[in-house]
Amino acid sequence: MTPRRRCGVAVALPARGELAAWRSTTISAARPRCSRLRKLGASLERAAIGAAAAIRIGRQVRNAPILRSRPSLLARPDELVPVCTLISDTHVTAPGHTPCELDVDPGQWPWREMPTAEAVAAGLSRVLDHARRHAPHTVIWCGDEVDTGDPAEWQMWRQVVDSVPRLMHRLVPGNHDICFNRPFDADYTLARRAARETAYQTHAGRLADFPVVDTLITGAGAVTLVLLDDQLDELEHVLDLVAGPVLCITHHHVWRDAQFLQPDAWYNTVVDADRLAAILGDYRRRTAGNHVLICHGHRHALSAGVIGEPGAELAVVGLPSTTLGDKSLTGMLDGVLRYAVAGLRRDGSWAVALHPVGSLARSGEPTRARPATPPNAALRALAVIDDVPGGRLVP
Q1: Do the beta carbons of residue 299 and residue 293 sit within 8 Å?
Q2: Is 331 left (phi over 0), alpha (psi -120 to 50) or beta?
Q3: Over the stretch 142-183, which tens digit does the pLDDT of each residue have?
Q4: CATH topology for 67-387?
């Protein structure tokens, strides 16, 4: 026999005259091995690409500015000229489902009985109705409007939104709306991402339109609203044409904590947060009246602070989940329904007032589970939920 190689596997070919059946059996046995080797090679290649991207992102986000806590950015409603209503991380689910992050980490929910899709939808309806009666009718959604981007979730979201009239809605996408995959449920072809993008654009507007820029007329004058998904080059051009207060909305964090040791925190942060801070810092420095507020969601943890250099500080407020609550202190959600109102103080500076509406669900039997990733000491130090004027409404 003459040894030869086929797809990296040594195959001994029979000498002339041997049974043709032997040849057929040998080649057939080699084919599954070749297929397995190709799949293994493809998996290793994907793993290598993913590891390289993770390292690159991890290094880049360390350039994000460090947040310096400033609880005074939280105000009472009567201290502000209201500009708009802020809602974040509502995680509307399809009937028969609970928010997927509670499936993955049930220790985040304070009670054994998980919130249902109907409870989340009813809670959101209560929030919108309260805002319609007590807050600006321009409602800005800070991402994660739905839980996994499924069209059935958007249909549920649409039913809730349409049930509360006379509100004008503007949205930015969150990772759960566009690019969320459940653990061990890869989307290598991006087919599911394409379907989620289609569903988002059906209900929330074209992704290609970002950044969305609008002018809000308030009792304190004109305010520039910027809904940002990326597109920092375009943001620079926009800011060249405006002056006065700017409200910038993004989903992910634009800052990091001082330690920044938890890997999950690296992927909560905007990759080019340093550049965003530099662009907005230049705008803030241009004239004293160019006050800037950045509002975001994502982590379900209330934070209030500043980034940037003295004289060009940018106010930043991170919002809790409107439906599931805040988890800034322990990593466990408190289940309080809240929305926020961004507004201007008499001196023209920004602040945010929180409006608690009630509890998402009645208190039940407490869970014995604990959050899988509680906040570290640096993140707990940035928690300001206990500094909310009027109290945080503990259920």
Answers
A1: no
A2: left
A3: 999 999 999 999 999 999 999 999 999 999 999 999 988 776
A4: Purple Acid Phosphatase; chain A, domain 2 (3.60.21)
